[in-house]
Design brief:
With about 325 residues, the protein is α/β, with parallel strands linked by helices. Helix content is about 50%, strand content about 15%.
């Protein structure tokens, strides 16, 4: 019997995890073709999520809990979970019930010989306008920077073959970008429509700052295109400046006068150019800073403890 590994990053989800894990268990058992294990990764929120994970572990020995030493982010939590899976197929899903476990076999059964990862797609998304905007930006970025197929939607709900997960966890970069690792590992993707559900409790943990960090991870980890854009912009502005200087000189010689640009327009141009220059320097600084942190072996995550270390047995291997 094949083993399914479910990896769920957990953040402020003490009120939802019981329902999610129960639905996973009931769906797998009703199907009867697979065994299962559930890896719950507590990303160290200031609530009772870890206590809830330990409680669920006592009820179901197939659950394995990991507690981070601090909040490292969803991508790092996924990487921690991936390094503890034993299954032939690995299913990633959210902790809030919006990615319904009851529909997992629509993804799993779509896996064929020509497919390595099956992503859920959502005809109707129950996210806020802010989250939908962030998803569109992330999708555009993955297409432009990493060569993701334009018609592929990369959701947080997907099933992947074990060798893809093994390839992804070879990355020890302190700024992992899971979508980029998937695109780098294979070109065999598929989308399957799934009904996106409303959150049963709480609100999304993604803030603007967290989304910005996610985008920067994608920018700096898998492409140098932003640096090339900065170079082209520098060349264009240099050309504009040169042409403007030529116009001033010619007008001075032919018309014997000087252009009075005015203080306001001069300051505006200076501020615009200086702003663009500082943005380019900041972009270069992001690349250099992340290289520095990678060279200094900054950890991708730190595990404080697991349910096994808390006196709980690890899930059996199949």
């Amino acid at each position: 019997m094949q083993l399914l590994s479910f990896v769920i990053p957990c953040y402020h989800s003490a009120a939802t995890l019981a329902a999610v894990t129960q639905q996973i268990r009931e769906t797998v058992q009703a199907d009867g073709r697979y065994a299962y294990e559930i890896i719950l990764v507590n990303d160290n929120p200031a609530d009772d999520t870890w206590r809830e994970i330990c409680r669920l572990k006592q009820q179901d020995p197939q659950i394995f809990g990991i507690c981070m030493s601090r909040n490292f982010g969803q991508a790092s939590a996924l990487m921690a979970g991936y390094r503890h899976v034993h299954g032939d197929l690995v299913v990633s899903l959210d902790d809030d019930g919006q990615t319904p476990p009851a529909e997992m076999f629509r993804l799993i059964d779509a896996m064929d010989e020509d497919t390595d990862i099956v992503y859920a797609s959502y005809p109707t998304k129950h996210h806020s306008l802010f989250r939908n905007f962030g998803s569109r930006v992330n999708d555009w970025m993955a297409t432009w920077l990493m060569g993701k197929p334009k018609d592929l939607y990369m959701a947080s709900y997907y099933v992947a073959r074990r060798f893809i997960i093994d390839e992804m966890v070879r990355c020890d970069n302190p700024f992992p970008y899971v979508d980029g690792l998937a695109v780098r590992s294979t070109s065999r993707f598929k989308n399957i429509p799934i009904d996106h559900q409303d959150r049963t409790e709480g609100e999304s943990g993604y803030t603007f700052v967290k989304l910005l960090r996610l985008w920067l991870n994608g920018f700096t980890a898998f492409s140098v295109k932003p640096l090339r854009v900065a170079t082209v912009m520098g060349m264009l502005f240099s050309l504009v400046g040169f042409l403007f200087a030529v116009i001033i000189i010619v007008r001075k010689i032919l018309l014997l006068d000087a252009i009075d640009a005015g203080w306001s327009s001069t300051v505006s141009i200076v501020l615009l150019l200086d702003g663009i220059l500082m943005m380019m320097l900041g972009l270069i600084g992001e690349y250099v800073g992340r290289m520095y942190m990678a060279m200094n072996k900054s950890p991708q995550y730190i595990i404080r403890m697991t349910t096994a270390e808390a006196g709980q047995p690890e899930p059996p291997q199949s």
